[in-house]
């Protein structure tokens, strides 16, 4: 049975079940998007050649010619993409098909019919491809950065909602010195923000220097032109950083750097997802039920943390793809091999799963409610966490074996306010220190957590 391609029949979940979440990526990272960027590079290179004094056979373009040339890529349509696919069926070469398409369109511009051989002039396919992928990644990154920023702001807002709320910390899953919920959440907000900045700061590079990176054909045709300067200006004009020293391919090191930066953000988001899931499990967070939703097919009471679980799963898929691409893309046999081509076609899939994950986390956070009573009761059940403070004050006053004495009295035991007070009376503390420790409670033993939660780096 032959099925038409729809979100229901798509093989991959990014274009299937989650299509609505990533539709904004489609014009950028799809094959249509790649074609559009390739067409843009071909058109702008043609225009750049026409602007060179040393290329006399291609006169400077008039205003109307420049406008018509620009319209070829700015008005690029799905029908244009289908025309390229038709040409590719004959050429069996995707970039050559783009070249032929641009030639067709340029030939229809008044006065340029005899100049079409300057389309793709002195270019190897990789000149067009690396610049097209650079443009794709620059725009795709902008979409991803917007969702990353929303995730940062959501976690930060949740921290603001939790301001001033003491909370029992846990190390190794066991009760530990108290903290505040706001400070714990601010740790994640800061980590996410810092990781996002790393993604934004990666410099994307590009090259247009011919078949083996030496401008061989360029110099054969126009030896008097300063081709490295022309190349650098052209790449910079596209918004990319010129890479003057390459083989046939731009070596993709910057893509690997970008993907590693995205992976680091994803790892932090995954860490947050798992902590949020665990806080839900111990009832520190509740989840607002949505009318009509079902949590379990058999247990009617369930409200499951599915959004954080969905995010976790998609982050795993995204990082697996990003890791493979970051490992593979900088490695190519001699001048190049084509193994990078099929790998680069998965950029969109990897970015899509990143965005699906961010949106799932955002949805999960939006449904959280802070269970203050549970958090406060948990603190009140664990007065033994004050043992750290007691033995530290004993050290200050030179009392013998403070750690060992507190260990014997508290390790593996749960204290309440009465047993804690009884313990203090047996420790021979100076009166002022004894009074200070009597006033200490798990709720007030949070150090500088409130102050730290307000920090911005």
Structure description:
- The chain has a two-stranded antiparallel ribbon. Strands 3-4 form a two-stranded parallel ribbon.
- Helix content is 60%, strand content 5%.
- The protein is mostly helical.
- The protein has 20 helices and 6 strands.
- The chain has helices spanning 19-22, 26-29, 31-50, 63-74, 78-91, 94-107, 125-161, 181-201, 216-221, 227-237, 253-281, 306-328, 339-344, 347-366, 372-380, 387-396, 402-410, 417-425, 431-439, 449-453, and strands spanning 166-171, 174-180, 205-206, 241-242, 285-287, 368-370.
- Helix 3 packs antiparallel against helix 4 (63-74), helix 5 packs across helix 6 and helix 7 packs parallel to helix 14 (347-366).
- The longest helix has 37 residues, at 125-161.
- The protein is elongated, with a radius of gyration of 31 Å.
- It starts with 18 loop residues before the first helix and ends with a helix.
- The model has no long low-confidence stretch (mean pLDDT 94).
């Amino acid at each position: 049975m032959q099925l038409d391609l729809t979100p229901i029949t798509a093989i991959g979940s990014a274009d299937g079940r989650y299509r609505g979440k990533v539709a904004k990526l489609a014009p950028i990272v799809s094959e249509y998007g790649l074609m559009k960027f390739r067409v843009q590079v071909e058109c702008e290179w043609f225009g750049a050649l026409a602007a060179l004094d040393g290329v006399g056979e291609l006169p400077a373009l008039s205003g109307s010619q420049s406008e018509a040339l620009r319209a070829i890529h700015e008005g690029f349509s799905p029908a244009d993409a289908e025309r390229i696919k038709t040409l590719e069926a004959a050429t069996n070469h995707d970039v050559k098909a783009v070249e032929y398409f641009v030639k067709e369109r340029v030939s229809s511009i008044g006065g340029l019919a005899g100049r079409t051989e300057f389309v793709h002039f002195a270019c190897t396919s990789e000149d067009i491809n690396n610049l097209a992928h650079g443009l794709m990644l620059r725009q795709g990154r902008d979409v991803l950065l917007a969702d990353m920023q929303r995730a940062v702001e959501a976690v930060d807002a949740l921290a603001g909602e939790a301001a001033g709320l003491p909370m029992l910390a846990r190390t190794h899953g066991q009760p530990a010195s108290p903290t505040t919920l706001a400070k714990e959440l601010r740790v994640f907000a800061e980590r996410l923000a810092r990781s996002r900045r790393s993604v934004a700061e990666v410099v994307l590079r590009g090259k247009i220097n011919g078949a083996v990176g030496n401008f061989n054909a360029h110099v054969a045709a126009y030896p008097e032109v300063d081709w490295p300067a022309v190349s650098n200006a052209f790449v910079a004009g596209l918004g990319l950083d010129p890479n003057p020293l390459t083989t046939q391919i731009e070596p993709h090191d910057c893509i690997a750097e970008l993907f590693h930066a995205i992976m680091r953000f994803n790892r932090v988001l995954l860490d947050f997802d798992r902590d949020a899931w665990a806080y839900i499990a111990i009832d520190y967070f509740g989840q607002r039920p949505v009318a009509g939703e079902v949590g379990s097919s058999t247990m009617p009471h369930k409200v499951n943390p599915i959004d954080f679980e969905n995010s976790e799963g998609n982050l795993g898929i995204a990082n697996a793809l990003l890791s493979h691409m970051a490992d593979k893309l900088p490695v190519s046999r001699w001048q190049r091999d084509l193994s990078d081509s099929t790998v680069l076609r998965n950029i969109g899939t990897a970015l899509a799963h990143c965005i699906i994950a961010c949106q799932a986390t955002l949805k999960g956070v939006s449904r959280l409610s802070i269970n203050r009573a549970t958090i406060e009761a948990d603190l009140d059940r664990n007065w033994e966490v004050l043992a750290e403070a007691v033995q530290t004050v004993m050290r200050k006053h030179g009392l013998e074996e403070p750690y060992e004495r507190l260990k014997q009295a508290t390790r593996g035991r749960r204290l309440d306010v009465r047993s804690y007070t009884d313990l203090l009376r047996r420790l021979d503390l100076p009166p002022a220190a004894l009074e200070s420790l009597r006033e200490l409670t798990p709720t007030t033993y949070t150090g500088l957590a409130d102050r730290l939660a307000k920090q911005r780096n």
